[in-house]
């Protein structure tokens, strides 16, 4: 049978009353957990794992799929409204999404996010249906040298393209890499930058860093200026609560470009959806500089559309990699792999032969789940946006409480709360001196991966650095990186000269 026939059989299995109920329940639970700072789809699936043992495998995995995508939808909601992403996959969306919210366009930002997540997920899942057996070829092309080149590409892109200043971007990158080095070195067993404190032996959690830098840092910065800045008027939502024709015209190319970034990364274990979301954000920001009226920094709708589509496209193809290869390329996929094994099934090529009904019903339920999530999220965008009408002192006090609760819920550690305060102060200082936050976050996320793959490559080559440049993929990535840096440098020199000439004419 061809994939279309299998998929139609899957829809027939998914459109039973109980399976539809599990899709809706999973989507709603995932969205609810996703909006809580520090939690996300991985945590929701982990919490639900013991609960689903009483369900049949098909119903359990349909619910997991709803939670998986629901968490991604919910992650961006608090990021856009409160500058507090529910998970690291929503960090790139938060940068421009929160600026849109502050400009009175929160409903439009939430609608853009929901539609982008829907488009990215639909494109990726459609490709999985037709090309799942061939995904192994793409993943097999990447070795240690290619992973390291990809990490270096992401580091440089965020430090030079995303940041307005190369120097400030590089400082932020160093801060992030320093945080990533804290803990026990996996190869030698030596402790690094732990100050002999046992809670630091496992390193600093990305959840603590994300919530501290983005949420608590923002709270402290606002509090420090509460007597300097004039009281802000209540946010007045501008335009219709839906996207206008002009919004769609700006957003749809970014949705497609974001999906294009996300699909390949779901198959490659490079740390989840953070890399494609940041690459999508950097691309949209670069393209925005060519426009006469630049929008980035003021709430660019493309900065929400691209990363959100990239994140859900990555999640969709990650599901394909899990089913077709047995390769978990994200934390949530790893938990779902454990769930498959507890039901006595091993994801991989044989899964499509031995558990055909379950696999195709699960794939069909992904389509249904994304439609359900769009129905749940899109009409409620104006309602969610009314959170911004809460008086500022109550709102930021609530954010602080939820930050502490979210961190304590994930680790039950008072030490993590102290770390949260320290990193919040770091976030405050970075805002005070206008250092970008994105390079810190991408360095913390990809730093351990880059170090591990560099060591593996050098171990294989017995210390020869030449192995890093032996493959065509690595050389291509380094060439693109060099070209991007050169182009960015030339553009900034031209811009500086033009500004200097303008000042001389005025003088």
Automatic annotation (TrEMBL):
Xref: InterPro entries: DUF112_TM
Ranges where the DUF112 domain occurs: 20-441
Name of the protein in question: DUF112 domain-containing protein
Positions of transmembrane segments: 20-49, 109-132, 138-159, 166-184, 204-224, 321-340, 360-381, 393-421, 465-490
Keywords assigned: Membrane, Transmembrane, Transmembrane helix
Organism: Streptomyces xiamenensis
